[in-house]
Amino acid sequence: MSRRVVITGLGVCAPNGVGLHDFTEALHQGKTGIRFQSKLQALDFGCQIAGEPLIKDNILSNYFTPLQLRGLNASGIIYGVIAGKDAWSDAGLFPNSSKVPYWDCGVIFGSGTLGVDKFREAVYQVDNKDVRRLGSTAVIQTMASGVSAYLGGMLGCGNQVTTNSSACTTGTESILIAYERIASGRAEVMLSGSCSDSGPYVWGGFDAMRILPWDFNNNPGKASRPMSATATGFVPGSGAGALVLESLESAQKRGAKIYAEVLGGEINSGGQVGEGSMTAPNSEAVQRCIKKAVKNSGIESYQIDAINGHLTATSKDALEVTNWSEALGLSGNQFPYINSFKGTIGHCLSAAGSIECVGSILQLEEGVVFGNVNCEDVHPEIVKIIDEGKIPQKTIPYRPKIIAKASFGFGDVNACVIFRAYNN
Question: Where does the Ketosynthase family 3 (KS3) domain start and stop, copy by copy (predicted)?
């Protein structure tokens, strides 16, 4: 028998806002976190802009001990710990101070590339025969599961503590893995989320692929243009999002604030066959993922009030909207509101899904649909499918009850999760 699963904590470390309050205000106002990066200019990148959280050094002591900070050079871990510990605190939970693990609490926190700068540092020190200066934290900062290991230890969790990795689908996938663990009765509380490193060693490969915008270096705020006719590629970003998922019984017993309920979802792959490839989605798989997410959640398509799409500001945006329309059997004015947060934060890669899930749930909390920044010229192929009024340019007052969030990633992988405003 499947148990009901709710969300009781949120945390975020995003390019346009570090902390839940600043991130919420930024989404309301359409504030961008995409900025010119002099380090990319110095390295002769074509795209010299990116979305990167602005972390003040003096706040790190709120999240790390002096010993943990010594030699710490992994931006993704820093972002993940900030978002994760904030979400834990937001849920009214505390780090474990006893000698017994929290057996019913776990961590599913994903990453893509992790500790790239630390790994680069390690390569130089090894090549220079200076291996003893690497320090004792080089391994944990560069292993894929470093972020979940940090968080699991900081919080004292004794249930499953692991890291998932599925390209841009990672964050949304982590939430569904945590959901399934709680729904099946194997855990009571799970911290889920994802993070992504920042910097040229992460973003360089995408610049080499020529899929980033090269003509907005002097106007960063206008560069990321999801669903726009003048979109020229995605802007790379970084950061972390975190959510505390909990069984309804546990949340009620604690008297915890409940942001939303996770109704269900679906994870699948297009197998890189047909029109699918390493970098292109198989539309049949995308539509199947959405359809099964709706079915698994026990709702009908017409009950979805809003969609937060993957929508990266590339030529595939119109195809994604087509897939949503086909999967839901809705078009024109019957189609839900749809938005993308990438206009202000860029594409945060493995952190995208978790940051955007936090933003999606904030719409339930705030009673709004956040606007689509830089989408004043909606792509004509999209307007053929849905009414332009369903793509709000600015934040609008509206109280959605059910929101669908999907992420699609390299490797032809897909994930879709359905959130509902909590009611007894």
Answer: 2-421
Instruction: Give the model confidence (pLDDT) of 235-270 as tens digits.
Output: 999 999 999 999 999 999 999 999 999 999 999 999
Exactly one of 310, 375, 379, 416 is catalytic; name it: 310
pLDDT digits (tens, 9 = 90+) for 71-94: 898 899 999 999 999 999 999 999
Q: What is the CA 146 to chain-centroid distance, rounded?
A: 18
Q: In the chain, what are the domains?
A: 1-424 (3.40.47.10)
User: What does each C-alpha distance from 70 to 20, 139, 335 come to in angstroms?
Assistant: 27, 14, 52
DSSP string, 273-330: -TT--SSS--HHHHHHHHHHHHHHTT--GGG--EEE----SSTTHHHHHHHHHHHHT-
Q: In this predicted model, what pLDDT tens digit does every residue of 35-70 receive, in sequence order?
A: 999 999 999 999 999 999 999 888 999 999 999 998
Identified catalytic residue from 168, 348, 357, 416: 168
Q: Where are the alpha helices (DSSP H) in 128-212?
A: 138-142, 146-155, 170-183, 200-208
For 28, counting Cβ atoms within 10 Å of its Cβ (0-12 exposed, 13-18 middle, 19+ buried), the class is middle
347 token code pair: 């594409």
- Rounded Cα gap, residues 240 and 111, in angstroms: 9
Are the C-beta atoms of residues 336 and 304 closer than 8 Å to each other? yes
379 is catalytic: no
Beta strands in 151-259 (DSSP E): 161-162, 189-196, 239-247
Dig out the tokens for 12 from the structure. 């975020």
The span from the CA of 371 to the CA of 374, in Å, is: 9
Q: How far apart are the first and last CA of the chain?
A: 19
Q: What is the pLDDT of residues 356-384, one digit of tens each?
A: 999 999 999 999 999 999 999 999 999 99
347, 348, 357, 379: the catalytic one is: 347
CB atoms within 10 A of CB 190: 30
Going by C-beta distance under 8 Å and a sequence separation of 6 or more, which residues neighbour residue 70? 135, 137
Please name the residues in contact with 223: beta carbons below 8 A apart, sequence gap of 6 or more.
34, 49, 213, 216, 235, 374
pLDDT-above-90 percentage for the chain: 90
Four-residue CA torsion sign, 283, 289, 294, 295: positive
Q: Contact at 8 Å (CB) between 316 and 168?
A: no
